[in-house]
């Protein structure tokens, strides 16, 4: 209606209200649509389906109900215990041209609300009827949710019972059998939630075509009005498109469509094929968001005024009789663009006992130019065989077809199996897995073989078990490998020449180039931006010109006052681009820089980011938010940070005082803030963190001046680090070279101190090393530390090998220390225990322990470097945040 509408059109009694649908309960926004086959009719869903005049008028009679109550109590009207509808769709050819209520689309679909949103026991089910023209209030509809999902991996249709947010019948399918359904739910918590289903047999079987869509609710789906193979889906995360919907069951087919949508769920899509795009084309896609407005973008197939036109020559193919299990010679269909715009073929499909190869999808077909389709006949049974070749493209109606026919004959004496060999997508110059063709003699006589030849440079014979002849009932095998030299479909033939004729098998495969990850630009420069506000975003474009998806995409700001929104998702389809929107949100004044890191399956790339932060109007301090200092040891001073006072007014600013609280200091001679600051000028202070005690420390800076918002204040914070390292008993140990000395220590700090300490040793004698266990300890409590000095070893990096001796290590490592602290009677018992361990070593006293080789004069015993006898001071030190604490330990080597 557009301009013809006024406020007067939206007052008074509604055209369709509760009275017209018998006061039925329904979802808040009851689903409805104008019947596409008869727009004077409207379809409405409550807990059942209604059809009636779309114009105003009296209440509908009960005959306008064309279904029974789909579930729940069967009473006169819907009540709260009746599951309600969430979506409706209509398709199929018009029944008749009359305007009575039962005219219009014969095929109807009704999607239910979720089991938690009003769908109850049939939450998320889908019902249909194919005889809507004669339906009544007692008609029973078919529950399609019980139909199998062909690629569901054991999961049925909408097993989570979520809302079927949208159901759409493909308008290109005159039968109404092609239908799509979106699911408004998340996967997780043991629920495998598909987001989009497709059926081409009116719901008798379903395919999950969610493919690489994100795990988010799907809210709407639209079939491109110009191309049945192009589909758009609206999700909570944006709008996605595929131009090859038939591949979505097995491959990543979805791409983000467009840029610039707000960060809000997209709840509805609508296509307007005749709407001008403003650039000479027609065809718009409109997207409604949740609370963020209505948006539009040209359709993928938006047509310019000059339209392509597809012409096929011939329009049908008839093949001569062909024996079962053999392939005919190929016949050619020439596709010509007779229009005034480039022709883009998105898919060539064939049904029946026929096979095709083509060069039509590789690139757009310019005006008056052609592409070719090679069709072969491969009968699987005797008698007449028929098929259809369909070319999907950007022409009016979206497709063109050619009829195919041929006659299957009885099998020949020599049979090839298979007669069509299709290789999977293979990376350029890589070699596929070998596939075999069996050559069998089905006759009662020997047949001579004159040769096996492969035509097509991307295919080669790797195995050939065939000799000069085949005996009766005997077969041989030829192995074929595929090594593509170029992208796209590659084809060839295997020809076998024998006494009874020539047998041919067709070979085909797809060459794929690896994914690419070109990032552009690698530098973004933003203009001046007020502190704590966001700039307009700038885009980084990621391009994949390869034939395979680019995966594991991630983007993050690794430094600087910038933000990034990754509109690429975690994968990028072949021959696609996507964008990342970067904004500058300065927290400080002056030139600022940062880095964006973009990673994928191959590498991580960086983008340099630059901008200038400017102060807001008036008088202000920057950074704009709390200044955070790094962990700093008690008694030390951190590196300074610059604080800027800006006077953005037209008069001098008088400074009465600058005060600082907490463990923070203004560096001497660092301040340029005197008695006043000139108009549109700045002064700076250098402030450092000097904690007096450990734990979180806070403070503030206050500048008292003549501004109306005086004083200007800024919060300061930083973690102070303090700890103690003390001995835990023994500080002196006597050993001989080859033995180990163990010193216990205690590391203690307050519970509110964060960070970790690392340990080092100094002062060890030659041919010894020092091990501290653990080597790194988090602060915030008390921890026992063990310092072990190993003697009789070359160095820490070339220590002596270890001998595994059952029962020895416990004695060797603990015995010296234990004897130093036990009374004489206890020493005798410990010594006896150690001797017993030696005697019972094989039976498991300390089984599995290890002990270093010792050095000394023991004849026949292990030998190694000797640590010179003497008294040594070993210094064990712990360090964190620049603070070091140490203890002195005495090592006596005898």
Please describe what this structure looks like.
By secondary structure, this protein is mainly beta. It folds into five domains: 14-208, no CATH class; 310-512, Immunoglobulin-like (Sandwich); 518-614, Sandwich (Immunoglobulin-like); 618-721, Immunoglobulin-like; 724-893, Immunoglobulin-like (Sandwich). The chain contains two helices and 68 strands. The strands form 17 sheets. Strands 29, 30, 32, 34, 36 and 37 form a six-stranded mixed sheet that branches. Strands 49, 50, 52, 54, 56 and 57 form a six-stranded mixed sheet that branches. Residues 95-101 and 796-862 have low confidence and may be disordered.
List keywords for this structure.
mainly beta; Immunoglobulin-like; 5 domains; 6-stranded mixed β-sheet; 2 helices; 68 strands
Provide the fold topology.
Blueprint: E1 32-34, E2 41-45, E3 49-53, E4 85-91, E5 107-112, E6 126-129, E7 142-143, E8 163-169, E9 179-184, E10 196-199, E11 207-208, E12 218-223, E13 231-235, E14 238-242, E15 255-256, E16 266-276, E17 281-289, E18 294-304, E19 310-313, E20 316-318, E21 322-323, E22 331-337, E23 345-350, E24 354-358, E25 370-377, E26 383-393, E27 399-409, E28 414-417, E29 420-422, E30 426-427, E31 435-441, E32 447-455, E33 459-464, E34 469-470, E35 475-482, E36 488-498, E37 501-512, E38 518-520, E39 523-530, E40 538-544, E41 550-551, E42 554-559, E43 562-566, E44 571-572, E45 576-584, E46 590-599, E47 604-614, E48 618-622, E49 627-628, E50 632-633, E51 641-648, E52 653-661, E53 664-666, E54 676-677, E55 681-689, E56 695-705, E57 712-721, E58 724-727, E59 732-735, E60 740-748, E61 756-762, E62 768-773, E63 776-778, E64 782-791, E65 802-804, H1 809-821, H2 824-839, E66 850-852, E67 870-880, E68 883-893
């Amino acid at each position: 209606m557009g301009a013809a509408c006024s406020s007067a059109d939206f007052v008074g009694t509604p055209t369709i209200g509760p009275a017209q649908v018998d006061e039925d309960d329904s979802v808040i926004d009851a689903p409805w649509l104008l019947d596409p086959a008869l727009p004077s009719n409207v379809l409405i869903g409550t807990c059942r389906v209604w059809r009636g005049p779309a114009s105003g008028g009296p209440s509908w009679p009960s005959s306008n109900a064309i279904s029974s109550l789909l579930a729940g109590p069967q009473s006169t009207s819907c009540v709260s215990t009746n599951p309600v509808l969430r979506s409706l769709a209509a398709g199929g050819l018009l029944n008749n041209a009359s305007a009575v209520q039962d005219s219009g689309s014969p095929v109807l679909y009704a999607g239910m609300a979720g089991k938690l949103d009003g769908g109850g026991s049939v939450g998320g089910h889908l019902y249909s009827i194919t005889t809507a023209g004669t339906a009544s209030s007692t008609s029973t509809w078919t529950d399609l949710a019980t139909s199998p999902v062909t690629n569901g991996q054991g999961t049925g249709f909408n097993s989570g019972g979520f809302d079927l947010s949208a159901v759409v019948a493909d308008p290109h399918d005159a039968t109404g059998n092609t239908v799509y359904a979106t699911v408004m739910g998340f996967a997780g918590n043991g629920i495998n939630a598909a987001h989009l289903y497709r059926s081409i047999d009116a719901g008798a079987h379903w395919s999950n075509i969610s493919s690489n869509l994100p795990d988010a609710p799907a809210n709407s789906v639209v079939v491109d009005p110009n191309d049945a193979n192009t589909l758009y889906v609206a999700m909570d995360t944006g709008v996605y498109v595929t131009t090859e919907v038939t591949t979505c069951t097995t491959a990543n087919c979805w791409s983000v469509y467009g840029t610039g949508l707000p960060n809000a769920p997209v709840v509805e899509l609508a296509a307007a094929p005749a709407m001008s795009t403003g650039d000479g084309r027609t065809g718009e896609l409109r997207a409604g968001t949740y609370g963020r407005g209505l948006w539009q973008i040209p359709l993928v197939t938006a047509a310019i005024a000059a339209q392509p036109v597809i012409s096929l020559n011939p329009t049908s193919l008839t093949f001569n009789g062909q024996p079962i299990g053999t392939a005919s010679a190929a016949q050619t269909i020439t596709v010509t663009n007779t229009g005034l715009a480039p022709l883009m073929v998105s898919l060539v499909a064939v049904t029946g006992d026929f096979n095709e190869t083509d060069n039509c999808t590789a690139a757009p077909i310019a005006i008056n130019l052609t592409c070719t389709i090679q069709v072969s006949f491969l009968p699987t049974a005797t008698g007449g065989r028929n098929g259809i070749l369909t070319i999907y493209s950007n022409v009016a109606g979206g497709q063109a077809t050619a009829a195919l026919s041929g006659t299957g004959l009885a099998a020949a004496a020599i049979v090839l199996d298979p007669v069509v060999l299709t290789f999977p997508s293979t990376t350029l110059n890589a070699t596929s897995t070998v596939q075999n063709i069996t050559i069998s003699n089905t006759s009662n006589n020997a047949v001579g073989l004159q040769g096996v030849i492969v035509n097509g440079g991307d295919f080669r014979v790797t195995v050939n078990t065939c000799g000069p002849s085949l005996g009766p009932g005997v077969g041989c095998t030829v192995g074929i490998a595929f090594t593509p030299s170029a992208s796209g479909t590659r084809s060839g033939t295997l020809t076998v020449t024998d006494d009874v004729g020539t047998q041919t098998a067709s070979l085909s495969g797809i060459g794929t180039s690896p994914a690419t990850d070109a990032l552009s630009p690698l530098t973004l420069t933003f203009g001046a931006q007020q502190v704590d506000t966001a700039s307009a975003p700038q885009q980084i474009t990621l391009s994949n010109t390869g034939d395979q998806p680019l995966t594991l995409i991630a983007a993050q700001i690794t430094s600087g006052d910038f933000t990034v929104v990754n509109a690429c998702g975690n994968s990028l389809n072949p021959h696609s681009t996507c964008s990342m929107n970067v904004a500058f949100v300065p927290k400080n004044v002056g030139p600022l820089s940062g880095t964006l890191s973009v990673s994928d399956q191959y590498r991580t790339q960086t983008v340099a980011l630059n901008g200038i932060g400017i102060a807001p109007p008036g008088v202000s301090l920057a950074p704009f938010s709390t200044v955070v200092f790094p962990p700093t040891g008690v008694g030390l001073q951190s590196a300074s940070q610059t604080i800027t006072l800006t006077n953005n007014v037209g008069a001098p600013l008088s400074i009465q005082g600058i005060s600082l609280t907490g463990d923070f200091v203004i560096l001497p001679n660092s301040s340029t803030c005197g008695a006043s600051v000139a108009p549109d000028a700045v002064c700076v202070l250098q402030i450092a963190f000097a904690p007096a005690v450990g734990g979180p420390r806070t403070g503030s800076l206050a500048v008292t001046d003549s501004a109306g918002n005086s004083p200007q204040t800024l919060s300061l914070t930083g973690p102070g680090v303090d700890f103690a390292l003390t001995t835990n008993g023994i500080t002196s140990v006597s050993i001989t070279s080859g033995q180990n000395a163990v010193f216990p220590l205690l590391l203690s700090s307050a519970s509110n101190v964060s960070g970790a300490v690392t340990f080092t040793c100094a002062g060890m004698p030659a041919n010894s090393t020092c091990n501290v266990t653990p080597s790194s300890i988090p602060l915030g409590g008390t921890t026992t530390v063990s310092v072990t000095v190993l003697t009789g070893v070359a160095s820490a990096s070339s220590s002596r090998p270890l001998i595994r001796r059952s029962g020895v290590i416990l004695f060797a490592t603990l015995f010296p220390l234990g004897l130093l602290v036990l009374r004489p009677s206890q020493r005798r018992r410990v010594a006896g225990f150690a001797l017993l361990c030696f005697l019972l070593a094989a039976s498991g006293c300390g089984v599995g322990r290890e002990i270093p080789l010792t050095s000394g004069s023991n004849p026949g015993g292990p030998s190694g470097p000797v640590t010179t006898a003497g008294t040594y001071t070993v210094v064990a030190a712990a360090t964190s945040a620049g603070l070091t604490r140490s203890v002195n330990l005495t090592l006596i080597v005898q």
